[in-house]
Predict the 3D structure of the following.
Amino acid sequence: MSQFSEIASKFSPSGLKDKTRGDKVIWAIVIVLSLVSLLVVYSATNSLAYKMYKGNNFIYLLKQIGFISLGIVVVYFAHRVNYTIYSRVAKMMFYISIVLLIYTLLFGAKINDGSRWIKLPIINLTIQTSDIAKLSLFMYLSRLLSKKQEFIKDFKKGFLPLMVPVVIICGLIAPANLSTALLTGATSMLLLFIGRASMKHIAIVGAAVAVPVIILILIAGAYYDKAEGKQKELPAILSVGRIPTWIKRVQDFRYAKKDESPYQVQQAKIAVAKGGVFGLGPGNSEQRNFLPHPYSDYIYAIIIEEYGMIGAAFIIFIYMVFLFRSIKIFRKCPYAFGAFLALALSFTLVIQAMTNMAVNVGLFPVTGVTLPLVSMGGSSFLFTCLSIGIILSVARNVEENEGDSKQTKEVVA
């Protein structure tokens, strides 16, 4: 009987509160976004599930419940680990991610001339190796930043050692996923700026990246037939890998007329227009039957269609609160590594979210990034949960340090 009472106490509200440390607002955000995910994924996949599984409308909902449950377990165990351990394994993970990215480029699953995924043989789960690489990079970069503060203004001793891993990871991600590489690079530069790196050095890197981007835009304009509304035939040198896809996306965003936009962009705009201020109501989406990937890349358009601008603003507000709480952790953390790590992981999640939402409403070229914690589960969903767990690990350490300081002051008093 006493054993039963002990087990029951662990799962009581007070027992769970003792086991779940860290920022309670971030915990609440995880729960809220998970609930939003269940509602919207079920709505977005309803017709697809009926068609693919002969009337079983709940198959994708059940899968999402499984992923969310597993994700919360990942968050819990990651937040229980002392975040200093992540510093110890950062270098090893960085090297492993390089090997995985190279393997993915050579032997990964190819979709649209780009290799992004590898398949795990036993559990038959596909993993996007860029997710591992981003997490490893920000761990390693946070560690280097914490160690290089004394030389951070020096180009050779401080800035260059920080840029080498960024260039390597972004360079290996770019051939298959240019948008992810650019977002990862932008997050890294933002972290270096906060880490007191020289603005002159950051500006040089920004200019170096801007040159090929400007060239890509100029090439897209030169090889776009405005009269026909389509891409001109590209020379052999511009037909390698995913270069034609990059050019096409720039052309669709920059030069195409409204009626010449890609199919998914047109359908997303229709969804946004139908949503209005209050939306059509939960489960009443019409564009889920026409919009490609309404459960992942274009899930925000479904949110707007069903919940209107109010629902759209609420999602933005949630991510902003998440960023605000992460910045608060950064300011309170007494150790540089934990502070930089929490900020880097929060920045990458919020920037990814804002990019996804911008694509859905036509403010950004099509990229293929998902909405963190809301899009239908996969390896990306689990790595998002791992990142949040690490942020909460830093928050837990801050909370414990504040508790120790308070006790010390009370004893002294």
In short: Confidence is low (pLDDT under 50) at residues 1-12, 408-413.
